[in-house]
Each structure stands twice: as structure tokens, then as C-alpha cells.
Specification:
Chain A is of the alpha/beta class. Chain A has helices at residues 13-21, 25-36, 53-66, 78-84, 101-113, 132-148, 172-182, 206-220, 232-244; strands at 2-9, 41-45, 71-74, 93-97, 117-121, 156-159, 191-192, 224-227. The two termini of chain A are 21 Å apart. By secondary structure, chain B is α/β, with parallel strands linked by helices. An eight-stranded parallel beta barrel of chain B has the order 3-4-5-6-7-8-9-10, surrounded by seven helices. Classes of the chains: A alpha/beta (260), B alpha/beta (320).
Chain lengths: 260, 320
């Protein structure tokens, strides 16, 4: 399971304040905490705090100063991406492009040049498709464009766009069906990822809903998630789902080594 | 007619492990041996990369092995009485890539030699040859816990491969591997789940899985070989698919196991119609080795000079 730690995001108050104050403490702390929890990538999101690429670079440098985990550059601006990717010590995961042609044209060459992986959202300038078929169409466009740009399928992470369960219950089955179909795009299939926390937006039982949705999505073929990697129950449930899917070999200590 | 492309593409690479340390690297070896690094199943060079050919380790024991047939002991010759001379014969005459020193003398049910004696054999072999060394305990976990730390120290800095770490002794093995800068063999009793468990435990003990080679406990052809073959293959496929606890090179101790079975022990007076043991024995060993190479072995330990020759030729032909 590829886990992308969501926490270094200025949407969280402590990170926003730290970026405004140029205080590296909270960024480094969350980098270490998420890396220790087993994150594959650490998402770094500047949000609306600044439009200055230098601030994003500073954030990435703080993360890299304490852990070796590669980062996920979370921005929708190609100008910020182009600068931020230069300071990455390891090939990052770019979060994200949409299926809109102008986005693809701006993001894919940068990903290809730096041997980076890239998340492709199954939306375009017209918005999020309501059906599984619509999502498959958009995701297919991203994958085709990525292949054309020289990015191999194993560097592409397709995102079906997860909606809040509470407000859009009818969308859940469409999302899961889209995941199932994304898997058929290529062999080996592209990665399939989602921004998990959105599913529990506005609900009371956030962790339970995140966990249940993630397990069901893994059952459909999802193999990556941007999530709270420090939620032990969530990560354990995902690992167990991977065993059920026969993607990993069982071992008694598949969750926690005996000595821990 | 268009023929569909049925080649498999895997997403992960098997770890690369380098054994031996030259003078510049803090050891005294004349060369190092690198195994692993595959991105495809054995010998399918058209599907992926196989950057390192499987390595052959010459089996050497610290004492003369009991129960070996005359066919085998005669083929090794007088050198069988001295680990140093035996190792030299393997390297100089047979061109093996590395030496596997089995500390048979330590076995409590046999000679029960003290750790110091075993360490002497390690030093003697290190002085006699300049290829990388595999140091393999006698298999009795309690005795190995006494013997291997001393042998490990005797070879400190030589970047040897120490065997073997099991579910029971992994902490000791991880500690001595780290202290003396050696790689480790992780061993499981023909059980893929325990094989993964051992790797997780080693990692948890702070040992880098990039420094581990897996051993599924080798079985001879006709005596459980098919079970072990399946495990080798499943481990490799899981590793290539991205299970990082399974993406490790594998070792098969063929020389040690192949000569324990009736087909490699009994001559034609006992097995009429089976041909002379002199030819059949080494062929049994070589055939077992060929099977493990196909299964995914990265290091093959071999005993009989003819088996070594034949296996090297097979590897050459298969690697092109």
C-alpha cells in the first residue's frame, strides 16, 4: 500500500502558522511522525498562504532536512511545481493534474523530465463526472497523455475523486466502480489513489468511515491513498485488505513485529 | 498475423546485495560478488533486467563431513582435510565466485568443536583465498549463538554472508551482523509466511533488508524439491510485484542437501539400472542446482567439482 501523509498542509492551523512564521518546527515534527508511521510519500501543500514558489521550496527543504521519505508536491500551479521539483532529493509524486488539456500540457513534461510520478484527477474544466463511466473517460485521457509524454504507467496515479459520503451517498458506488475499471487500463495497471479524508467530511464517525471506505476501495483495486498515516487502525485495516487481495504475502507480524 | 505481446511487466526490482570487501573497503578480498537486482523472473532477459548472473559458492567444511559418499570425497581429494586447501581448490581449479564455509565441526551431536576452533577455520580460509566468504553455522541454534559471534569477529570488515537468522535467533544474528559489518541469511523451514516473518523481524531489529539473502531451506531433487521450488517462485513474484519484504535475493544450499539422498549415495549394486554413482551423483547435484536456478536462486552452493563445472556452463548458456 502506498501511503501519502496528508498532514503537511496549510489547511491545518499549526502548519499554516508555522509557514507564516517561518518556523520549521511543526513541519519537521510532522515529517518525522508520518515517516515513522510508514508513509511512502509526504504531501507538502502550500495552499493559499502564499503564491511564492520559494515558500514551497522552503517547506520541502524542512521535510527533507529530517527524513528521507520522498515528498508529494501538492499544487495546481505549474510555475510553483517547476521550482519545487528542483529542490526534491528524490523523484517526487506530483499532486496533481486534471484531464484538462492545458493542465496536461503544463504538468506532464515536468513530471517526465524529473522521472516523477503524477496523480491524475478524473476531472476536467467542466467539473467532476457524476458517473463511473465519466470518471473512466477522464482518467483514460490522463493516462494516454502521460504515456505519450513518456511517463510509464507505474508512475501514474489515477484518482477517481472521492466525494463526501454524507452529502453524496449515491456517488460512492460510482467511485468504487471507477476504481475497478481503472485497473483494466494497462498491464501492469496504473496506481489508483484517492484523497481519503474527503469521504468523511462533515461526519461524526470520521475514522470509521475513512477506514471502511478505504478497505472497500482496496477491494476494488485501489493501492494508494492520501490519508492520515498516523491513524494506526486505518493503516492496519488497509494492510489487512491487501492480504485479502493476495497482494502481499501473509506473515504473523504483518502489522506489528512481535518485539514492538 | 499479429501476435499479442504476452511479456510480463513487473513494477519492482529485487534488492542488490554485494558480498566481500576489498582493501579499499576495509577488508582483504581481491574481488566482490554482487547478486540480485532483477526486474523479471529467472533468465527471461527479454522481459526485464538481470544485471547479475547467479553466483556459485564452493562448499567447504571445517571438518571432513561424515556420511559423504566416496564418490564425492574422492572428487574433492586430499584437500578435504584442510578448509584452506579445499577453498583454494574451489577457487583456483574450479573458479567458484565465493566460498561457503560450513561450520560442521561445531555440531554438538558431532565433533562439538569450541568457537575458537571454528574461528580458526574462518581465518584460514580468509587467508587462503581472496573471494568473498559465506559463513554458515552448524544449524544448532544454541551452539551457533556461541560460535557465530566469534567467527563473525574473526572476519570483521570482510562483508561476509552469515547464516543463518531464524525466528528464534534473529536478534543475535542482527547484532553480530551489524557489529562486524556482515550480511545475513534469513532462513525459514520451507514456509513462505515464516520467511516473510523472519525478514520483518530482522528489519524490526534494525537490520537493513538490503543486506539480507533469503534461504527457504533447500531440499534435494525428489525429496521436497517441488515445495521449495514453489516457495522460491512465489517469493520472487511477490517481490517483483512490490512486496518489499520479499524482494530479496535467494540462496540454495544444493551441495549440502543433494548428497544426502539415496540417488546420490547408493551405487548400482543397490540401485540396478540407475547407472554408476560416479556419474549419477554429480548429475543429481547439478540437476537440483538447475532446478533452483530456474526457481530464482541467486547464489547456489555446490560441492562436487563436476556439478560446479556443469552448473557454470548452464548459467553461461542461459544468460547468453
Amino acid at each position: 500500500m502506498i501511503l501519502v501523509g496528508e498532514r503537511i498542509n496549510t489547511g491545518f492551523k499549526d502548519i499554516k502558522q508555522a509557514v507564516l512564521d517561518k518556523d520549521p518546527g511543526p513541519l519537521r515534527e510532522w515529517a518525522q511522525k508520518q515517516a515513522a508511521a510508514g508513509a511512502t510519500y509526504l504531501d507538502v501543500n502550500l495552499g493559499a498562504v502564499s503564491a511564492d514558489a520559494a515558500v514551497m521550496c522552503w517547506m520541502i527543504e524542512q521535510v527533507q532536512s529530517v527524513v528521507e521519505t520522498p515528498v508529494s508536491i501538492d499544487t495546481n500551479k505549474a510555475s510553483i511545481l517547476a521550482e519545487a521539483i528542483k529542490v526534491c532529493n528524490k523523484p517526487p509524486l506530483i499532486n496533481s493534474t486534471t484531464a484538462a488539456q492545458e493542465k496536461l500540457d503544463a504538468f506532464l513534461p515536468i513530471a517526465a523530465e524529473h522521472n516523477a510520478s503524477i496523480i491524475g484527477l478524473s476531472i476536467d474544466e467542466t467539473g467532476t463526472p457524476k458517473s463511473a463511466d465519466g470518471r473512466v473517460e477522464k482518467a483514460g485521457m490522463v493516462l494516454a497523455a502521460a504515456t505519450e509524454a513518456g511517463i510509464p504507467p507505474e508512475h501514474v496515479f489515477l484518482d477517481p475523486i472521492v466525494m463526501p459520503l454524507k452529502y453524496m451517498q449515491d456517488q460512492m458506488r460510482e467511485i468504487l466502480e471507477a476504481v475497478r475499471q481503472f485497473r483494466l487500463f494497462s498491464d501492469p495497471p496504473p496506481h489508483i489513489i484517492c484523497g481519503l479524508s474527503n469521504v468523511s467530511n462533515g461526519t461524526t464517525h470520521k475514522k470509521l468511515i475513512n477506514r471502511t471506505f478505504l478497505v472497500m476501495a482496496v477491494g476494488c483495486g485501489l493501492d494508494a491513498a492520501i490519508c492520515d498515516v498516523t491513524d494506526g487502525d486505518l493503516v492496519d485495516a488497509a494492510k489487512t485488505a491487501e492480504l485479502v487481495m493476495n497482494r502481499e504475502i501473509y506473515a504473523d507480524s504483518y502489522i506489528k513485529p512481535a518485539s514492538a | 498475423m499479429q501476435v499479442a505481446d504476452v511479456t510480463e511487466k513487473w513494477t519492482n526490482r529485487i534488492n542488490t546485495v554485494t558480498l566481500g570487501a576489498t582493501r579499499e573497503q576495509g577488508g582483504t578480498r581481491g574481488r566482490t560478488v554482487t547478486v540480485g537486482g532483477e526486474t523479471t523472473l529467472p533468465f527471461l532477459t527479454f522481459e526485464g533486467e538481470i544485471p547479475n548472473r547467479p553466483a556459485i559458492a564452493g562448499l567447504v567444511a571445517d571438518v571432513v563431513p561424515d556420511g559423504w559418499p566416496d564418490v564425492l570425497t574422492a572428487a574433492v581429494g586430499d584437500a578435504i582435510r584442510s578448509p584452506a586447501a579445499w577453498a583454494r581448490r574451489c577457487v583456483d581449479d574450479l573458479g567458484v565466485d565465493l566460498i561457503c564455509l560450513k561450520l560442521l565441526g561445531a555440531d554438538p551431536s558431532g565433533r562439538n568443536l569450541p568457537p575458537g576452533e571454528c574461528a580458526k577455520a574462518v581465518r584460514a580460509v580468509l587467508e587462503a583465498v581472496d573471494v568473498p566468504l559465506i559463513i554458515w553455522g552448524c544449524g544448532d541454534e544454541n551452539k551457533d549463538n556461541e560460535v557465530l559471534p566469534e567467527c563473525s569477529q574473526a572476519a570483521r570488515g570482510e562483508n561476509c554472508l552469515l547464516g543463518s537468522a531464524t525466528e528464534k535467533n534473529y536478534r543475535t544474528m542482527a547484532a553480530i551482523g551489524q557489529a562486524d559489518k556482515h550480511k545475513l541469511i534469513g532462513e525459514a523451514p520451507v514456509d513462505i509466511n515464516i520467511a516473510k516473518q523472519v525478514n520483518i523481524l530482522l528489519q524490526d531489529a534494525g537490520f537493513d533488508l538490503n543486506d539480507v539473502v533469503m534461504n527457504q531451506v533447500t531440499a534435494a531433487l525428489g525429496y521436497g524439491f517441488d515445495y521449495v521450488y514453489t516457495i522460491f517462485e512465489r517469493v520472487r513474484i511477490a517481490g517483483l510485484k512490490g512486496d518489499r519484504h520479499m524482494a530479496l535475493p535467494q540462496i540454495a544450499n544444493v551441495g549440502w542437501e543433494a548428497w544426502k539422498v539415496k540417488e546420490a549415495l547408493a551405487d548400482e549394486d543397490v540401485l540396478p539400472g540407475w547407472g554408476k554413482l560416479k556419474e549419477r551423483g554429480p548429475r543429481w547435484e547439478a540437476a537440483t542446482a538447475a532446478g533452483y536456478l530456474q526457481a530464482g536462486a541467486d547464489i547456489i552452493v555446490l560441492a562436487h567439482p563436476d556439478a560446479i563445472k556443469v552448473t557454470r556452463e548452464s548459467i553461461g548458456e542461459l544468460m547468453g
